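TL;DR need structure tokens for one chain.
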Amino acid sequence: MEMENHRPGSFTYMGRKFSDLSLNDDSSAFSDCNSDRSGEFPTASSESRRLLLSCASENSDDLINHLVSHLDSSYSIDEQKQAAMEIRLLSKNKPENRIKIAKAGAIKPLISLISSSDLQLQEYGVTAILNLSLCDENKESIASSGAIKPLVRALKMGTPTAKENAACALLRLSQIEENKVAIGRSGAIPLLVNLLETGGFRAKKDASTALYSLCSAKENKIRAVQSGIMKPLVELMADFGSNMVDKSAFVMSLLMSVPESKPAIVEEGGVPVLVEIVEVGTQRQKEMAVSILLQLCEESVVYRTMVAREGAIPPLVALSQAGTSRAKQKAEALIELLRQPRSISNGGARSSSQL
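>> reply
TL;DR here they are.
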């Protein structure tokens, strides 16, 4: 299992060392998944609800044990749904309940619900598992209990809400390093790429965050590129109204350390989009775009010529005069590279290990 640092590493060009080619403030671009945001499930009768709330106020442990026992397949689907719904509600905002519910043995039966052919029951199971995964103490137990493959199936075949919450749950599980490759090998990457391309805004946000976490593993980067991730990344970066420019740029920057990423960016029309961002993006977006272009051009005369012909030099000059100190340094290095496009024969004198 080959792991890389969570952020792109450093490389040296013309005697200069450029470290942390992404930015230090990626946490402001990627907010972590919260507890489920699917709205309230349809509740049971008010009388049943009052009874449950009364039990909860008197002895939540008894209520939790009662609900966990009703997740069993010996009960009807309606009873299982009711139990899963109540577990989801109890675990939504109370961290202490997440631990209690897990200790009461809820994880394995909830994972079984994720494999249900009843899509609503599956959604309830996914959502409850997401809520339990918000507690760090539960993540390892959820993964070791076999949640990854059922969550990936929900990501493929579930309701829109189940897909979003499955992406969030997989993100939570991917925060344990050894789970990253297991999730990638279970088929999650192309499904997350599809969600990034076709989902609503929340789904795109969740998918990009999960992909960013998973793609610190090299083999997942390759899977993402092979799954066609550059197409939705370029499209989202081209749409300044998408509110996804920063997230998409962070993911793209992370993928630049695998050689397959570079022709994929070019083929999907990424060069003019990146040059436009250098011209009109925010300061953070400009720096990200320059970082990506710098890595794209470092080894390729063809790509340098392409970037120069897109009119990159004037906005780079402006950035070198008015950007942040790091942005200025990167802009100056890229200008130097573009003005000497044939200084390295065949564009192949430097190894990708320097990226």
